[in-house]
Amino acid sequence: MASQDKNQTGSSEADEHGKQSKDIPVKSKDDMQQRLGLGLKNMYLNVLDEPLPDDILALLDQLDEDDEDDSNSDRSDINE
Amino acid sequence: MSKPQALPPSEFKQQLTEAIPHLRAFGRSLSGNRDVADDLVQDTLLKAWAARDRFIAGTSMRAWTFVILRNTFFSSMRRKKFSANYDELVAERVLSAPAPQQEPLHLADLQRGLMELSDDQREAIILVGAGGYSYEEAAEIANCAVGTMKSRVSRARKALEEILEEGRFTSASEGLGNLTTTALENIIGEVEKISH
């Protein structure tokens, strides 16, 4: 695993108080990149899977209704 | 040359509705906050609806509305209506299934890490790394050259890796109490000072 040792990054060295500065274990660069890529995609997909809030859908319906009202009143203006 | 065609209203509404989950995901990643993101989406829908005659049939509704959302976000940030911040409600969600010896990547850490990036780097890595857009599509949304987008993504990835590896978070990504002191606002403040 010599090649992996070369790639090791992370921060498990002891700090000035003799404690481990972070709980994150030493990892390879590739591993971090992979987890980051997966994490970003999952973060985005989690939101896609959520049900749409009612107020957002209601807003669209309201805009649509307002348009229909406007076009009906335009038509009645023309017919008057 | 024939005039570009607008979509019939019902089709426009249908396509706009289909774009909403993506707008919420983009807005959430950009702002780091669920409520801010949903406000952004509502603003975006209002603007898109008002400008629907300008949407050309056959082009991407998602990309078109992403441009509106990001412009709304960045111009509102300049007016401090919205602030980039991370949402503590999602703090415990685990994002990547780790191998047995690995630490899982928490959504809170990722969101805090994203908030540490500059706004252009954050936008770039969200579009390409999270949203799966090509560099060309992302460059079009962010209104920059493809080469610039590639470089932003690369720098963002490197910076984010370092932040997550070292746990190097600053006040820019802390709780809502720090809304007025985000790194981004400091940068915007500096830019405003220079432009006056």
Main sheet summary of chain A: 2 strands, antiparallel
CATH topology title of the largest domain in chain B? Arc Repressor Mutant, subunit A
CATH class of the largest domain in chain B: Mainly Alpha
**Largest sheet of chain B, order of strands side by side?**
1-2
pLDDT below 50 for ≥5 consecutive residues: which ranges of chain B? 175-191
Structural class of chain B: mainly alpha
**Secondary-structure element order of chain A, N to C:** HEEHH
Listing every helix as H and every strand as E from the N terminus to the C terminus, the arrangement of chain B reads: HHHEEHHHHH
Question: Which properties best describe this structure?
Answer:
heterodimer, A: 80 residues, mainly alpha, two-stranded antiparallel ribbon, 5% strand, rod-shaped, disordered N terminus, B: 196 residues, Rna Polymerase Sigma Factor, Chain: A, Arc Repressor Mutant, subunit A, 2 domains, two-stranded antiparallel sheet, 8 helices, globular
Care to describe what's here?
The complex is a heterodimer of chains A (80) and B (196). Chain A is 65% helix and 5% strand. Chain A has helices at 2-7, 29-48, 54-79; strands spanning 8-9, 27-28. Chain B has two domains: 9-78, Rna Polymerase Sigma Factor, Chain: A (Orthogonal Bundle), CATH 1.10.1740.10; 88-189, Arc Repressor Mutant, subunit A (Orthogonal Bundle). Chain B has helices at residues 9-31, 34-50, 61-78, 107-116, 119-130, 135-142, 146-166, 183-195; strands at residues 94-96, 105-106. In chain B, helix 1 (9-31) crosses helix 3 and helix 3 (61-78) packs across helix 6. Mean pLDDT of chain B is 81; it is low at 175-191. The A-B interface holds A 9-11, 22-25, 27, 29, 31-33, 35-48, 50, 52-53, 55-57, 59-60, 63-64, 67 and B 9, 13, 16-17, 20-22, 24-26, 28-29, 38, 41-42, 45-46, 49, 93, 95-98, 101-103, 105, 107, 110-111, 125-126, 129-132, 157, 160-161, 164-167.
